[in-house]
Design goal:
Mean pLDDT: 79
Low-confidence stretches: 198-217, 411-415
């Protein structure tokens, strides 16, 4: 079983290699086939993105279909460009990769150079274990790699090299490690007095601080969710909303869910969200564009509509201006859940990128199956008000069920 990659004692990025100590002559890595492959693949992917961007320039948007297709293509470019960026970064690393190492002051210092940047990793020689040679595979049985264990992982030094050269490097490292090992042995032979540990209130109460129960799930998120879902009933009974208004509103809620999902990614991923967030927006935005076409031509425009298509901006204003209050409440509802549950209860500590990027699709898939089923039932019943209220009830129940299941995944129950 292969060990995880060892974590160095110290890590920093610099513009200089530093000087002093004993240099370790490492062989250059034979990466030219990989470099050539990555360069060709990068230019192909970048050319595809550029061609798509070029096809979007100057495109006339006359109706809703034109806008939805334009947005789908734009979101596709965003997701694709994220892949181009990642591949470009990997290509840059491989093309400009140069590795060197040295022994200095009881440390093994690895210094791979990525263009102008030097990634400096320091390993305490006294803590290096199981310094060994491993077969590098391939045709030559005399080709080996230098490997060693450190902390809870393992790492290597340099690329495949002849056994004689590797044995010389291992001898240099062991010779440099001898003084560090003697100092470590002397320090371990001197017993250290344990420092008194203050008793915390949790310990005095007979419980471990590590086992403190998480804050209870705040009911505000469920109340806000129900309140936001009651707004469409007011719209149907008082403002005269019809089925198409409700369907568009629920489609727009998907965009709200996507917005707060990006906020969650930023909290969890931090700097990595510069890559993961655009990738998510690209895929999710493309999905939303296609789904809007379905909602518009089935429930708003209608399959039996005749006459010319309305101009796109007139159609959008007619759709969303009457729903502005409901949209604001839905945005606030999901925001309350974000701040009270995800941040307030520490749910961000128990989640990861994969869960955050899949949850919106799972919840929206269930939600939209519900509203599409309810929408067709409403059309068949030919009782608009009663049917739309039934649809709202079904969607609210699905929302609450999804809300409870989502937060239950974090080891908590909704109370």
């Amino acid at each position: 079983m292969q060990k995880r990659l060892a974590r160095p004692e110290k890590f920093r990025i610099s513009l200089r290699h530093g000087s002093g100590g004993t240099p370790l002559p490492l062989p250059s890595r034979r990466l030219w086939p990989l470099k050539l492959f990555l360069l060709v693949l990068f230019f192909i992917m970048a050319a595809i993105a550029w061609a798509q961007i070029g096809s979007m320039r100057g495109r006339k948007i006359q109706d809703v279909f034109d806008l939805a297709f334009f947005l789908f293509q734009g979101f596709w470019v965003v997701g694709w460009s994220t892949g181009v960026f990642v591949l470009g970064a990997i290509t840059f690393i491989v093309v400009f990769y140069r590795e060197s190492a040295r022994l200095y002051d009881g440390r093994l210092i690895k210094m791979p150079r990525l263009g102008p940047l030097v990634m400096i990793s320091e390993y305490d020689l006294a803590k290096i274990r199981n310094l060994r040679l491993e077969s590098a595979g391939g045709k030559s049985e005399d080709s080996v790699r230098i490997r060693f264990d450190y902390r809870d992982g393992a790492t290597g030094l340099g690329d495949a090299m002849p056994r004689a050269d590797a044995e010389k490097l291992v001898a240099i490292i062991r010779e440099g490690a001898s003084p560090a090992l003697r100092v470590a042995a002397e320090e371990s032979a001197t017993p250290a007095m344990p420092e008194p540990r203050p008793a915390s209130s949790a310990v005095l109460a007979g419980s471990s601080p590590d086992q403190d129960p998480p804050p209870p799930l705040q009911p505000f998120s469920a109340i806000a969710l129900i309140a936001a879902n009651l707004v469409p009933i007011f719209g149907v009974l008082v403002l005269g909303w019809n089925l198409s208004d409700v369907m568009v509103l629920y489609w727009a809620e998907s965009a709200v869910v996507g917005f707060w999902s990006v906020a969650k990614l930023v909290v969890v991923e931090k700097w990595a969200a510069l890559v993961t967030a655009p990738y998510f927006v690209g895929g999710f935005g493309g999905f939303m564009s296609c789904h809007f076409l379905f909602i518009y031509y089935f429930f708003v425009r209608g399959l039996d509509a005749a006459g010319p298509e309305p101009f796109v901006w007139d159609a959008l204003l007619d759709l969303f201006v009457p729903l502005r209050l409901a949209l604001a409440l839905l945005f606030i509802s999901h925001g309350v859940s974000f701040f009270t549950n995800f941040l307030g209860r520490g749910e961000y500590l128990d989640t990861d990128r994969k869960r955050l990027m899949s949850e919106p699709y799972t919840r929206i898939f269930v939600m939209h199956l519900t509203i599409i089923f309810g929408g067709f039932v409403t059309m068949l019943l030919r009782a608009p008000a009663a049917g739309v209220i039934l649809l709202i009830a079904l969607k609210t129940a699905a929302d609450l069920l999804g809300h409870r299941k989502q937060h239950a995944r974090y080891g908590r129950s909704d109370a």
